[in-house]
Design a protein that fits this description.
Layout: E1 2-5, E2 8-11, H1 16-39, H2 43-52, H3 57-66
Antiparallel strand pairs: 1-2
Helix pairs in contact: 1-2
Organism: Promicromonospora soli
InterPro entries: Urocanase_C, Urocanase_sf
Protein name: Urocanase C-terminal domain-containing protein
């Protein structure tokens, strides 16, 4: 079987190397599509990314920026003398 995806031609000839390369290609290509849809703001893409463990750094950064700054609200700990 010969297939083309993302501009790359892959040959599935039954060898372990071909299987490894096809798995990498099909996983990464689909993951990139999910990332692009998350970036476009599609809620379903966010759900799919979370379900499948696709890490989205731009989403992580946006969520971190939206969280309140907890470091400044932590009570100070008094130093104890020995």
């Amino acid at each position: 079987m010969i297939g083309s995806r993302t501009g790359q031609v892959s040959v599935a000839d039954g060898t372990p190397l071909a299987a490894e390369k096809l798995e990498r290609l099909l996983t990464n290509d689909s993951g990139t599509g999910v990332i692009r849809h998350v970036d476009a703001g599609y809620e379903r893409a966010i759900e799919v990314a979370e379900q499948h463990g696709v890490r989205i750094p731009m989403l992580e950064a946006a969520r971190a920026a939206a969280e309140p700054d907890t470091a400044s609200k932590t009570p100070a700990v008094a130093a104890q003398s020995v």
